[in-house]
C-alpha cells in the first residue's frame, strides 16, 4: 500500500507563499487520485484541493480557488500544493491523501491513505 510523506510547511507572513510536497512510496503514484485537506485547531477537516491520476482534472473549494494550485509529477511520485496570497485563516495542519478511486472527490472519507501532516502557520 502507498505511504505518503508531506513536507514544505512552515511560518509565513500574510500575503506570502509556500509550496507543499507529498511524496508517495510503496505504490505507483499514477494509480491514485490525490488530495490535500487541512484541519485547524477546534475545526473539522476541510477539503483544499484534489487532482486526478493523470493530472488533467483538478478541484478546489471557493475558499482557495485562484490562490492555491495542485499539481503532480507522476515520474517522481510527488504531488504539490502551491499556496499563494496566504491568509491567517489558512493556518492549519495540511494533510496529503490518496485514493484508488478515479473520482476527484472532495470527501475525505473517499481517501484511504493519509500522510502525517505538515503545519502551515500564516501570521498577520
Descriptive terms for the model:
mainly beta; globular; 124 residues; seven-stranded mixed β-sheet; four-stranded antiparallel β-sheet
Helix and strand layout, with pairings?
Blueprint: E1 3-7, E2 10-13, E3 18-25, E4 33-39, E5 46-51, E6 58-59, E7 68-73, E8 78-83, E9 92-99, E10 113-114, E11 118-123
Parallel strand pairs: 2-11
Antiparallel strand pairs: 1-3, 3-8, 4-5, 4-9, 5-6, 7-8, 9-10, 9-11
Tell me briefly what this model is:
The protein has strands spanning 3-7, 10-13, 18-25, 33-39, 46-51, 58-59, 68-73, 78-83, 92-99, 113-114, 118-123. With 124 residues, the chain is mostly beta strands.
Q: Can you walk me through this structure?
A:
The radius of gyration is 13 Å and the shape is globular. It contains no helices and eleven strands. The model has no long low-confidence stretch (mean pLDDT 96). With 124 residues, the chain is mainly beta. Helices cover 0% and strands 48% of the residues. The chain has strands spanning 3-7, 10-13, 18-25, 33-39, 46-51, 58-59, 68-73, 78-83, 92-99, 113-114, 118-123.
Give the overall silhouette.
Answer: globular
Largest sheet: 7 strands, mixed
Residue ranges: pLDDT <50 for 5 or more in a row?
none
Task: Compute the separation of the termini in Å.
Answer: 40 Å
Report helical residue fraction. under 10%
Computed CA radius of gyration, to the nearest angstrom: 13 Å
What class would the helix/strand composition place it in?
Answer: mainly beta
Number of helices: 0
Percent strand equals over 45%
H/E topology pattern: EEEEEEEEEEE
Number of strands: 11
Average pLDDT metric: 96
Amino acid at each position: 500500500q502507498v505511504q505518503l510523506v508531506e513536507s514544505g510547511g512552515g511560518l509565513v507572513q500574510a500575503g506570502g507563499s509556500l509550496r507543499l510536497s507529498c511524496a508517495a512510496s510503496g505504490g505507483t503514484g499514477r494509480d491514485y487520485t490525490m488530495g490535500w485537506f487541512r484541519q485547524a485547531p477546534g475545526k473539522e477537516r476541510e477539503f483544499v484541493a484534489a487532482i486526478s491520476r493523470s493530472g488533467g482534472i483538478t478541484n478546489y473549494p471557493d475558499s482557495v480557488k485562484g490562490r492555491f494550485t495542485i499539481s503532480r509529477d507522476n515520474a517522481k511520485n510527488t504531488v504539490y500544493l502551491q499556496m499563494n496570497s496566504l491568509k491567517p485563516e489558512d493556518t492549519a495542519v495540511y494533510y496529503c491523501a490518496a485514493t484508488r478511486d478515479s473520482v476527484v472527490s472532495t470527501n475525505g472519507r473517499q481517501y484511504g491513505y493519509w500522510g502525517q501532516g505538515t503545519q502551515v502557520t500564516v501570521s498577520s
